[in-house]
Design brief:
Helix content: 25-40%
Number of helices: 13
Order of helices and strands: EHEEHEEHEHEEHEHEHEHEEHHHHH
Strand order of the largest sheet: 3-2-1-4-5-6-7
Largest sheet: 7 strands, parallel
Length: about 400
Amino acid sequence: MRACWLAPDDYGGGVISVAQACCREAAANGHDATLLTLLPPSGHAAEFGGVRVESLDAAPADADSPRRFIKWLEDNPQDVVFLNGCEQVDETPPFIPQETRAIYVVHDTAPRYFEAAIRHEAAMDAIVAVSESVAARFRDKLQQPEKLFVIHNGTVFPIEYANAVRSSDLLFLGGDKHIKGAGDVLALWPHLLDQGFEGRLHWFGSVGPSIKRRIAALPQADRIVLHGRVARRRIFEIANNSSALLMLSRVEPFGMVTVECMGMGCGVAGWDIDTGTKEIVRRPEEGRVAPLGDYRALATAAMSTLEIGSTERQDMAMRVRERFSAEAMWARYEAMLMQVMAGSRAHRAAPGSVPPDYVPPQRLFQNLPEWIRGPIREAVGRSARLGYILRDLRGR
């Protein structure tokens, strides 16, 4: 089978990790698989090998992105193409060659991530949601709900689980993004110290000057290690010697970070909200949650995850590795593909025609001047509850 996974770029994040793992496993199982990025690749997608990467070499706002994509499909005929969160080609499904099965993968709960799948449902052979939390957002909007499949993500585990004495360190992988809980970590830190936390906090992702200043002003800030952006392997290595992950996102459609850290033996501490994380953390001993905005309770939850025994950690890691490995994910995709390929083809209105130019959508918030946007971002970032209420307005 000739199969292509299209993603916007390989600069990091869950979408490219999933597409890369799928493509890698498809190739390992004898298929002619290609990972296609809209933007020029950075090398992240090929970090663990086994993937053929090609690119449309476009810029984020290139008007001809839809034409580049359709031209690539015409020059490189595919049996199936997976569209993964690439809004620049969202209007191309009616123009995809009729002989190619088209599958739209929805990775998020915000409307901007599934509206195109609804709009072009007739031209799609299937729609995949990465969790029940995501599927619930648009299932009742589909004319043919039987086209919808829920397929949990999986990941590549590049190193073996180490069942050894661990540090009491915590991890946070949200950079300075408030939607990921950066502000929550700042508010949580004094409560952790009050409850006797003695480890370090490993903070991954880009952190700007404003958040850096606030981190430096915290008590015992020397125990907060800012790693910045690193290769994924480095995250696995540090997780292998840490005890818990702070998963504080206001919205987490699935939780690739959760899977990756649990697979290395880290428990999870987070907010008691409706996210895909709850589809991963299935046992009380694997994670603890706190009422949204209650930082003292969150500190208690985090401290309790440090006490997970070595046997429980190993059981958790093995369960997660079995259920959410790249191999397990591919088995789920393969079962879906067998059903889709055996069914009738979706009808496309304009195969062989030229798709319209890409026009960047109007973002109401982005059109506001920075002196207004900045304080709004700050207010939302400082309030866990407000951030959660507004979570699905992202991209508006």
